[in-house]
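seq as requested:
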Amino acid sequence: MQACSLRDSKQKLSRQKLIVLGISPDPISRLKKFQDKEGLNFQLLSDEDHKIAEKYGVWGLKKFMGREFMGVNRMSFLVGMDGKIKNFMFKVNTKTHHDEVLKLVKGLNQG
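struct tokens:
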């Protein structure tokens, strides 16, 4: 749902000079299948050893249906042209994420 809403918001995001990248611990072959199936118009990057996730603090304990396991906690990072993190979003709502990103970027551009 999150990937598809970002896909569908490509024009709005591009107008704000945003480039979307997704990073996942899934292998490249699985990401490619997902990208093709959903018709994504942005790049998905593989982080199979979750080194990037660990550096960004998003690899951690998760709970689902009474089960605990290690995995990626959904977060978004807005990185400026200078390579520095401008803002980050915890507990991303997959349904409204694209709108939240646009609001945040417009606020940063005005401030």
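The chain has five helices and six strands.
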